Amino acid sequence: MFASIGRLTARHRWWVVVATLLFVVLGGAWGAGAFGAFTGGAGFDDPGAESTHADHLVDGPLGRHVTDAVVLYESDTSTVDDPAFADAVQQAVAKVPGDGIARIESYWSTGDAAFISTDRHATYVGIQFTSGDDYERVEALNEIKDELTAPGLTVRFGGLTAMTQQVNAQVSQDILLAEVISLPILVLLLIVIFRSAVAAALPLVVGIVVAVGSLAVLRVVGYFTDLSTFSVQVVTILGLGLAIDYALFMVNRFREELGRGLTVDAAIQRTMATAGRTVAFSGLTVAVSLACLIVFPSRFLLSMGYAGVATVLFAVISSLVLLPALLRFAGRRVNSLRIPLPRLPRTALVAADETKGRWYRTAHAVMRRPVASTVGIVVVLVALGVPFLGVNWARPGDWVLPVEADARVVTNIMSTDFVADPAKKVTVVVEMPGPADTAQAQTRLAEYAQRLDAVAGVNGAEVTGTYQNQARLTLGYAMDPQSREARTMVEDLRAQAPPPDSRASVTGMPASRVDIVNMVTERLPWMAVFVAVVSFVVLFLAFGSVTLPLKSVLMNLLSLSASFGAIKLIFQDGYLSGLLDFVPVGAVDVDFPILIVAIAFGLSMDYEVFLLSRVREQWVASGDVVESVALGTQRTAKIITSAALLLVVVVGGFLTSGITFMKMVGVGLVIAILVDATIVRGLLVPATMRLMGKWAWWSPAPLARWWSRHGMPEPPHDPTSTRRGAQPHDPALESANA
């Protein structure tokens, strides 16, 4: 099938290239509107959680009683007692139109001294918008920001709505910066890898097509589901990296087949039948890994799943359709425009005799002592993951922003210079059996408020509104909402008995953080089962073995162990925080392991499929377990290392992000990719394959026979490397006849 695709697209190469150019121009222009598909919010909340239920109630007639935006006014020389300071703030507030604003309060409108800092050089204005929608509140804030400026005073915007607006702006800026930094490095690395400008240009062309087309894909997906703000950065960079990796595999195989003396058309067909088949299965595995995110109900993870799957499949299709056409145009000129680079030392080059290659010798070395090698590597990887056992989970907040961002600065100032932070509120909604405004109901609510006020960490609790049978209680707190103390506070609040026959629902940043953590931990086992089962099926279809998929899943989990341990040490404990330019908050975002598992697990399978495909080619031809593993490792080592390096450069763009959450994803992926492409693929896989022997390719007889008839086996071994008349070894049939 894949050879036929290559033959068809190569034959109609002009149509393919012209259609691609039209798509890039028109689809790119149309896809630029993808940014309008994002709702303005990150979408981290669990729709079925108690906190979300409370949010729905206060978004109704009961109404909210929160401060969406905190506008902080400061002066180094003046105090709020100076007429110029007071007039500037009051005039700014007076200019704000009333549309879309439910409440705007200041020291001068309330007389409350809590609006003034302890040194009296700062004050704030609290704003509550009428809308309960994140996107609409961000738009409302953008409309009034200019009116809130005050001559002679430093003005900063904080609070949840301001934080959301600043995250949106930072994400857009980070995408451009990451691409500006990564693209020149990618060009340089491709030239070093191929030493030919023509060969180096082909993966880059495919990558650019996918990067541009991904925006169009995202816009299409946005018509069917709400997309999180963070989706665009993760998905576009992931699509670019995968497209370049896939094209790298195929261009390398094409050059290899030309080197064996095949014609251009025959080399394209052979490339598609081998590397093209591997790309298809690899892409399917990555897509499946991202599809597992649909088991989580939060909009962030759902949109990452939908958008990620669509983008990965688009990268696969682009590689399988566009690249054969480009290869046909290039033909034997694929090695043209040689770049005069210094020659590497002989030991670093791929030896003409593969049995003298470095990775061939390394594979044999670990296979001579497979038990010791396997145990040693597994112990090291598990040990690297041990620090993760002490992780403290968080949900995204203003801590994800750069330390100098307005929202984060305001939070810090409010916690040190003011009596209380108006944005630190917990809301409790009580649904009563009867009207909530009767004397008896008010007495019971007051008693309930007293019990809530007695909970450690709560600073005041009062009834702030009623509607029919619903009552709203507002509570203040002072601790970090991401801390373990905040979780204990929420658990204690929920443990307090509400009025008889009533239902109480707690919401606010600490409560939503508890609910998100609970949602992730409850559904994580289902995600693991989903990934394991579907990956098993995909790998079985690729190789006809039931033992290889089990080994692959375990290997990939081990490669993630080191990544998780490093993330805890770096982002929770603060190691390397100066180098990475962020301020640790003593916690790790709870969405991090989900994303890393989904993306890194798929990428690990990507390299696994590529390596095992070459091992199986040799195994089918010779039946020699040890030699097939050693040759497969040697033949794929350079290209897997190169692909990993290119992907590290792409995802390393996350490290330049001003969003700490994105840095976290970048560090996790870089470590997982490097560990997987070196330690796991180069050492652990050969050792475990030696231990498994021929059983690595085993399946029960019924499944083996089914796969021989209906599976998708790789093409026969290249006849140029097999003796005339020799019969290739078929492990599937061997299992079927066992």
Q: Care to describe what's here?
A:
The chain is of the alpha+beta class and 738 residues long. Among the domains are: 1-32 and 195-338, Multidrug efflux transporter AcrB transmembrane domain (Multidrug efflux transporter AcrB transmembrane fold), CATH 1.20.1640; 68-158, Multidrug efflux transporter AcrB pore domain like (Alpha-Beta Plaits, 2-Layer Sandwich); 412-512, Alpha-Beta Plaits. 61% of the residues lie in helices and 8% in strands. The strands form three sheets. Strands 2-3-1-4 form a four-stranded antiparallel beta sheet. A four-stranded antiparallel beta sheet has the order 7-8-6-9, sandwiched between helices. It has a two-stranded parallel sheet with strand order 5-10. Helix 9 runs antiparallel to helix 10 (264-291) and helix 18 (547-572) runs antiparallel to helix 22 (660-692). The protein is elongated and about 90 Å long. Residues 344-351 and 719-738 have low confidence and may be disordered. Keywords: Cell membrane, Membrane, Transmembrane, Transmembrane helix.
